[in-house]
Amino acid sequence: MIKTETKIACSHCGETCMNQELQQDDLNFCCLGCKQVNAILHQHKMTDYYCLNPMPGNKIISSASNKFDYLEDESIASKLISFKNAQHTQVQFFIPQMHCSSCLWLLEHLYKLNEGILQTDVNFTDKSIRISFQQDRISLKELCNLLMSLGYEPHITLKDYEEEKTKPKPVSKYLKLGLVGFCFGNIMLISFPEYLGLDLADNPLLLNVLRFTNLGISLPVFFYGASEFFKNAWQSIKQKHINIDAPISLAIVLTFTRSVFEILTHTGAGYLDSMCGIVFFMLIGRGLQRKTLTHLKFNRDYTSYFPIALTVVKDKEMQVKKIQEVEEGDVLKINSQEIIPVDCILSSRLADIDYSFVTGENDCTSMHAGELIYAGGKVMHSSIEVIAIKPFSQSHFTSLWNNQAFKKEEEYKSNFVELISKYFSLALILIASLTFVYWQIVNPANAWNALTAVLIIACPCTLLLTSSYTFGYLMEWFSKEGLFIKNADTITKMTQLDHIVFDKTGTISEVVQPEIIFMPLNSTIEDLRVVVSIMKQSNHPFSKIIAKHYEKLSIEEIQSVKEIAGQGIEAWHNEQHIKIGSASFVGMQVPNEISGSLVCFSVDGKTQAYFILKNKIRSGIKELFSALKKYSVSLLSGDNALSVQQMKHIFPKDSSLLFQQTPQQKLDYIHSLQMQGKKVMMIGDGINDAGALKQSDLGISVVENHFSFSPASDAIIHADRVANLHAFIQSAIGAKRLIIGSFIYSLFYNAIGIYFAVSAQLKPVIAAILMPASSISVILIAFVGTRYLHYTYFQKNNEKQRHDKNHVLR
Amino acid sequence: MNVIIFLLAVSLLVAISFLVAFIWSASNGQFDDDYSPAQRIFFTDNIENENN
What we know:
The structure holds two protein chains of two kinds.
Chain A: E1 23-24, E2 27-28, H1 32-43, H2 48-52, H3 74-80, E3 81-84, E4 88-94, H4 101-108, E5 117-123, E6 128-134, H5 140-149, H6 158-166, H7 173-195, H8 204-225, H9 227-238, H10 245-264, H11 272-290, E7 309-314, E8 317-322, E9 331-334, E10 344-346, E11 350-354, H12 356-359, E12 364-368, E13 372-373, E14 378-380, E15 384-388, H13 404-407, H14 416-442, H15 447-457, H16 461-480, E16 483-485, H17 488-494, E17 499-503, E18 515-519, H18 525-536, H19 541-549, E19 560-564, E20 568-573, E21 576-581, H20 583-586, E22 597-603, E23 607-614, H21 621-627, E24 632-636, H22 644-650, E25 656-658, H23 663-675, E26 680-684, H24 690-695, E27 698-703, E28 715-718, H25 725-758, H26 764-809
Parallel strand pairs in A: 17-24, 17-26, 24-25, 26-27, 27-28
Antiparallel strand pairs in A: 1-2, 3-4, 4-6, 5-6, 7-8, 7-9, 9-15, 10-13, 10-15, 11-12, 11-14, 16-28, 18-23, 19-20, 20-21, 21-22, 22-23
Helix pairs in contact in A: 7-8, 7-11, 8-10, 8-11, 9-10, 10-15, 11-16, 11-26, 14-15, 15-25, 16-25, 16-26, 18-19, 25-26
Chain B: H1 3-27, H2 36-51
């Protein structure tokens, strides 16, 4: 099949152009917003923006022009401003849309667009921007409007700014690493004469100078570098359980004290080199694992979705009020495209409210004056006035967040790595005490020496190394494949699942109106026109969709229409009897294998035709379900049961499909599964899934593009990568096996070390060889192993797809 | 042999001066953003071309 239709991409943002009218010179635009930005940039000779990257822009989403009015309120604005004097102001914004060097260029050249702007500093990694401007030339509000008009709307949540101010400036993550690495290298170097056999008898002065220098250099490693292990260990002991940091801290403390003792008593050089080395490698591993994706926020709550402040009408005057301060009885003015933050009563004559934010269902409802509007609806078309009946915190919508699920602190569950470490430590203590007893009998002089040597050489450091490097590398691979993981524990959780719950709209299907396929059979266009006219009068969701699809057909007045609930519509028009509804109601035979919802009609029982309504399913979803055979799956949709047939077709036979679920019901369903002892993973997009995502053992939120906002979750996945879910789970399971495997391998080194330690002949040089050898080989296994996992579960797939594509093209 | 002690002191002094330089640059935020500095170098070039 060859598609003759060519898609024209917008010269600004690269989206497909639906409208041919927005052409200028040889440029095409998808919307007026994109065209305007292009014009502004041309006018200011800033076309470099388009030279750096092809189609770099962000699609301009129309927002109310008075969206940033609240910034006129001094108390709100002052929270954003980091510095202010008589002439200029400095402010910091978070701009998640920033994605390429063109963005960087444009934002750093803002001064060309407005002479009030003095300087902009972009931090690309944090997606933040610091702007200095002259407040008498451009106000904060105008600045935000300028950014918004360019497609870089700053994301402002007061909570972020408050947190920013209270937390101390973070120390660069490289500082500690660099310092410990420096100490490790120098100690190794200074220890060389001793490795090569410099003896105390040869040159006592030189040897002592070397040893004391080592001791001095190791102090920052012990007190600063290793401090986070001590802190973690202490915290876990306070919570009455032992995590992996506890035995490691013990080993570090033991190594250090024994080394200090040996150096002070001139009996040996100690194991400072090994200690610094292991701390260094462990810090790198921890850093790799903790490599935060600073621009992704995993802990958003509902407040990020609401406007910060509202316009309150009081005595015919407009006032800006913070959302938390809204009281019962306040008259609020809500702009088009804004989300209604509180339960309220409509006082304007008419309003169109879109509840897709809450239900996920793409449906606009019309409201009349006096009707109750629940929080979470989005105002469409024109701005409205409402009277609040509940304060923000008590609204129907926000009450979801008062649920237990949002209050519970992340309770600590030990993962399999810690389980292994527990047994390992027990075995180690057993060996150490047996050694001690043996030497007490044979030669008491060696007893203490052997005891500490065993504990030093065989600490579970390699276990920590192998897990942190494997998880760290895997997380990096996952983010390249479009799955962003909050922390390493999430990967462990992925290996323990047995039930997966999917949301429909936005997860399995794309967020667009269902596709309509019309099978005319023997009907004419005249019949269709009459049928659509009848449907226009019905309130059934199917009718609405079909009527909207055929908007352009001229409509006739139909007098006698009878709606039979649950079956269909009957109508008489021009001496014809028309029936619309299910196949059995209309009385016709349709092929069985239709995947989608059916609407049939007949005219006088002779002429027949039917419509098929199909949700656009993401590609690869069907294959995903056949791959996920091991898991039970279910569907939780806020949508109406319109697509039941189609979903039944995709989902495995025995899975439960639930429709018209409220956010609360979704949460409860997950909870009931967990009560049955199941480990549940939830995948969903909208805020309507927020409760379920939080309640589930592993919540993954789906985003269309990497800068859109997602509800609080453990991981964020790219919408077009949902189909790869099975590959992600498989790699996580593979990673777990890898860790166990390489740990068993490292036991081999431990066995050698323990042999020397038990026989009381552990020389520093042996420790100094064994430690890096085992660490580096374990790191190598993690590096190669995760690469292999990525290759088997992703690369092969991708290659196959590429091959298929080429094949089709040829 | 004792000259090694002197050499040790000198080499440590040099090494520590590098360490101080590193600590200064790390706490000065030079490692915070690893993307934009590399890109900025292209920008000025383009503007100059435009002016010519």
